[in-house]
Amino acid sequence: MRVLNDIVSEAVTGFRNMLFPGVCLSCGEPSIEGMELLCPFCQDNRFDAANPFNTDACPGVILPSTIRFQYAMWKYDKGGVLQRLLHNIKYNGLGRLGFELGTLIGGRMADCPAISGLEHAKSELVLMPVPLHPRRKRMRGFNQAEVIALGVSQTSGIPVLNDNIVIRTRYTNTQTGFSLLDRGRNLKGAFEVTDTEEISGKTILIVDDVFTTGATTFALAETIQAYSPDEIGVLTIAHA
């Protein structure tokens, strides 16, 4: 896991410094610290909060019984700056940005009451990035959910499960344009648990980039629920 972090950090930071030396990728202003890909102003003020009421799930989200809570940091802006940033993380190799946004999630996720209540939980908290199929991971070069989870871990101290604990066994079509029903069918049987001891009795925080209909995280939660986790929650950068 640390090797992946180092590779993503070094490669992407070098690429970014060549194209965007010392500027915020959101507003284009010089970075105050000269390191962040998003300036402090954009981190705090550029995007709308996904859940301004700080409830256990974003407005309009109905969670299945397998999932206790759902936290998203920002509201997805279709066609806007945030969509472009998330697209660059996933398809244009800006893994470092995913890591930085993960560190923000790690610092802010206590805004969700259910998460803040986990401070005194008896079960161990672990982060589970949504797995990518090996073929898709080779195409992208890394799993964006994994680098986000590494960022969350950096600020929260919650460990990230190894990527071989739960694997994606079936190559699925992209979910874009699918109805909720078709999304569920597309993901049926897509995940498999290979080490049940790493799941049983623990509080699992599933990490991904965007929560849209929830089909992916719901399917993953249903798979791991069979192995008796204590609780399951969801963490994402955005809620669409």
Mean pLDDT: 87
Shape: globular
Percent of residues in helices = 25-40%
The total count of helices amounts to 9
Poorly predicted segments: none
Can you describe this structure?
The chain is of the alpha/beta class and 240 residues long. The chain is 38% helix and 15% strand. It is built from 9 helices and 6 strands; from the N terminus they run ααβαααβααβαββαβ. It has a 4-stranded parallel sheet with strand order 1-6-5-2.
Write out key terms for the chains shown.
240 residues, alpha/beta, four-stranded parallel beta sheet, two-stranded antiparallel sheet, 9 helices, 15% strand, globular
Question: How are the elements arranged and paired?
Answer:
Blueprint: H1 2-19, H2 40-45, E1 69-75, H3 81-91, H4 95-108, H5 113-116, E2 125-129, H6 134-140, H7 144-156, E3 166-168, H8 180-187, E4 191-193, E5 203-211, H9 215-225, E6 231-239
Parallel strand pairs: 1-6, 2-5, 5-6
Antiparallel strand pairs: 3-4
Helix pairs in contact: 3-4, 4-7
